[in-house]
Write a structure and sequence with these properties.
37% helix, alpha/beta, 12 strands, four-stranded mixed β-sheet, Spore Coat Polysaccharide Biosynthesis Protein SpsA, Chain A, globular, five-stranded mixed β-sheet
Length: 327
């Protein structure tokens, strides 16, 4: 049994906010805007996933002490929704602005880059030593316990081992999209392996809630402030950046601060850019699974009809009424 506090941290942005979009357009180059994986509107689009992410934590992880939502001068306005469905919630919810985690580095702001922001999440004031990190399109869809994330204080890493050489070959063979060679999720893990001094393989983590320890990151960055500043600086995603969570796991595995387990059967993943009928088929597949972790990646790409299907499935999983609402 764990007897220490555990917090959750969620990164969120409403890209349709005119003020946020104006700031983004001020700094983005034409190529960055055209590249959906870097600065395109779809990367920042929010269709309400944040409320279901938070709801899933309250429903299935009531042991959490606090949920931090990290934003850029925004507020998701969750109170009416939470008061309706989670009136007796014990978990505190706190909004954290980028200026807070970039204190001392304010000249680097604004940033519109998840990897930059993730690099300094450990700097949230009051954050517990043991915490869970989620993007706003992650959610829990079954009950979990602290022991699903930490074992005797060690972070649990759900991953498989992946050859660095194979990853580099795959990147070389990857076709261009809209004229761009995409620097993807796997590529950022290869970069993290280089920072950690790994030569042969890395831990291939998924789009799932990730268990982390603050002190491991703090100790590394205190010793290597240049590595932190270089990764937290780019306003938009760039090829040189590493995945901060992957770096944590590689460091923690070496120091004995994490336990690696198989991801098999633990997560569900949906990416709605795979043709008509894809979401219906995936939701039926999800209904046959008891996996606790789920990611609806870039649901903004889906049609209105498919978005409605996905949101209806999520509401049913979370035990919410399925009435279309404007909470």
């Amino acid at each position: 049994m764990t007897d220490f506090p555990i917090d959750a941290v969620i990164t969120w942005v409403d890209g349709d906010d005119p003020a946020h979009r104006a700031r983004r357009m001020k700094y983005a180059s034409r190529d960055q805007i055209l590249n959906d994986e870097v600065g395109g509107d779809i990367r920042y689009k929010s269709i309400g996933e944040i409320k279901y992410c938070v709801a899933s934590l309250l429903r299935f992880a009531p042991f959490l002490r606090r949920i931090y939502i990290v934003t850029d001068a925004q507020n998701p306005g969750l109170e009416p929704f939470l008061d309706r469905y989670f009136k007796d919630r014990k978990t505190e919810i706190e909004i954290v602005d980028h200026h807070v985690i970039y204190r001392g580095y304010e000249e680097l702001l604004p940033v519109f880059n998840a990897r930059s922001i993730e690099t300094v999440l450990w700097r949230i004031p009051g954050l517990s030593e043991h915490f869970i990190y989620l993007n706003d399109d992650f959610l829990l869809v079954a009950p979990v316990s602290p022991e699903d994330f930490f074992e005797d204080g060690r972070a649990i890493c759900y991953a498989s081992r992946f050859s660095i050489l194979s990853a580099r070959i795959l990147h070389f063979l990857k076709p261009r999209k809209k004229g761009f060679k995409i620097h993807g999720f796997k590529d950022s893990m290869v970069n993290a392996a280089a920072v950690a001094g790994r030569k042969r393989n890395f831990l291939y983590i998924g789009h799932i809630p990730l268990a982390l320890r603050k002190s491991t990151l703090e100790k590394f960055y205190d010793a290597h402030p240049d590595i932190m500043e270089k990764n937290m600086s780019p306003k938009f995603r760039c090829q040189s950046q590493y995945n901060p969570q992957e770096l944590f796991y590689l460091l923690a595995e070496k120091s004995g601060d994490c336990t690696v387990r198989s991801r098999k059967g633990m997560d569900l993943y949906l990416k709605p850019r795979n043709g008509k009928g894809y979401i219906t088929r995936k939701l039926k597949e999800f209904d046959r699974s008891d996996a606790p972790f789920c990611c609806f990646n870039s649901l903004g790409y889906a049609s209105d009809e498919d978005q409605k299907l996905a949101m209806g499935w999520i509401r049913r999983k979370l035990g919410l009424d399925n009435t279309a609402s404007s909470e």
